[in-house]
Amino acid sequence: MDYRVRQRRLVQEVESKRLAALLVTHLPNVRYLCGFTGSAGVLLVTARGSTLFTDGRYTVQAREEVQGARVVIARKAALAAAAEHLAQRGGRGAIPVGIEAAHLTLATHALLRKHSGKRARLRATSGMVEQLRQVKDSEELKLMRAAARLSATLFDQVIQHVRPGVREAEIAAELEFAARRAGAQGMSFPTIVAAGQRSALPHAHASTHQVPRRGFVVFDFGVILDGYCSDMTRTVHVGSPDARSRALYEAVLEAQAAGVQAVRAQAAAGEVDRAARSVLRRHTLALYFTHSTGHGVGLEIYEGPRLAKGQAEKLQNGMVVTVEPGVYIPGRGGVRIEDMVLVRDDGPELLTTASKELLTL
Length: 361
Ligand code: ZN
Ligand code: ZN
What we know:
With 361 residues, this protein is of the alpha+beta class. Helix content is 34%, strand content 24%. The protein has helices at 3-16, 27-34, 59-65, 78-87, 106-116, 128-133, 138-158, 168-181, 243-261, 269-282, and strands at 21-24, 42-46, 49-55, 70-74, 95-100, 120-125, 186-187, 192-195, 215-221, 223-225, 228-229, 232-238, 294-296, 303-307, 320-323, 326-329, 333-336, 339-344, 347-350.
C-alpha cells in the first residue's frame, strides 16, 4: 500500500481547509493512512510529516506495520499524548487543528482541549479521510476481489445445510466457521439468515427460528479478509415456489440487474437507486422496497457513497459499491439480492461471483 501517496492527498485537503494539522482518531482511517491495525492509536497528519501515537502494548506491532509516519509510544493514552505534543510544539499562538467530529465523544473532545491547552484551536471536520477512501487503489481492489470471491464460495458451501427444521443460527454458525477456516479474520457484520416469514424483515439476525417446509431464506453476510469487507445477499427457496413467489423473485432480480447496469463512472449515485426502484414500481412492488439501493464498502462495511434516492454525488472509477434492492411483504416473505460492484469508466464490474438464478432446495 502506498501510504505516503494517501497522506500527501490528505495534506492537500488539510491545507485547502486552512488547517495546520488533522488529528485522525477513527481507527479505519488511521489504518488507511499508515497501516497500523492496533486498537489504540492516533495519527497526527501535517504537511511536515505524520506521527502515530500509541501505547506500550503496540511497540512491536507499530514497528512492524506503520509506514510513512513517526511512531511515538506514549506512557499515557494515545490521544492525551497527541494533545500534549500539540501543546508543547514550538512557535507562538494557536494553530487550527482539524478533528474528526463524527468519531469523537464530548468527553474525548474535552480531554483534547484540556491537554492541548491554548496552543491548538480544534476545528470540526467531517469525512476528510473517508472521502479519499471511497476510491480504491489497485492493491485494495485485489484484496476486495478476494474477499468477494471468498464469500461467494462460502455461500455455495452453506446452502448444503439448508433444509426444513434447521435453525437459522445453525446455518449462520456453519457459514462463519467455514469463513474462519478459509482465512477470514471475522464477519463484516452479524450474519443475516432469515427464513420463511422472517425473510420479510430486512435486517433479521440469524435466530433460533427454524427453516419452514416452504418459503424464502435470505442470506446477507460478508467476510473480513486482510482488513477488507465483503457484502453479499442471496435468497433461495425451500420447497417449490408458487407463481407469486417466483414473480417476486424475478422482479427483484430484474431490479438488481437494472441497478448494476446503471453503475458507471460519472453517473449520479441516485441514478442507480432510481434504475432499481423504477423496475419495482413497474411491478407495483416499490412500496415494499423500504431501504436504499446500496452503499460503498471497503475497510468498513458501510462507506460512502450512498446509493439512495436523489443522491447527486458522482460515482468515480475505482469505487466499490453494493447494489441490493429487496422487497419485503409482511406475512409472506422477502427477497433481496446483493452484489459488490466495481465502478469503472466503461461500466460495472461484478465482484460477487455467485449465481443469481432462483435456487430451489
Ligand atoms: Zn449485505
Ligand atoms: Zn450491503
